[in-house]
What does this fold into?
Amino acid sequence: QVQLVESGGGLVQAGGSLRLSCAASGGTFSTYSMGWFRRALGKEREFVAAITWRYSSTTYADSVRGRFTISRDNAKNTVYLQMNSLKPEDTAVYYCAADSPRRGGVARRVDEYDYWGQGTQVTVSA
It folds into this structure.
């Protein structure tokens, strides 16, 4: 029902910045809380950031708080992840995800999201 397509990944030097985009189609985008997750080599997929459908409240993992910013543009059906002060430890495949429509509360777990993008690779060199 909902299709998500990430873009903006690539190579960047440590300390640099990168902006990821996630374009959504299907459903009513403004009713979905959205999240970003990442999976590093040899590790489980982990929560990065989320933004709610109501009031665009944001939540961040401790590892990225102060460096990453999640935002959304409902007119463009797009959610963004602005990544600053990147570290080699940020290297991972980044995934965009959509929660259930009008679901309340903060969603930090993988199994709380219903739809996923294909992922985009982010590589940070030392």
Summary: The two ends are 40 Å apart (CA to CA). The chain has a mean pLDDT of 96. The chain has no helices and eleven strands.
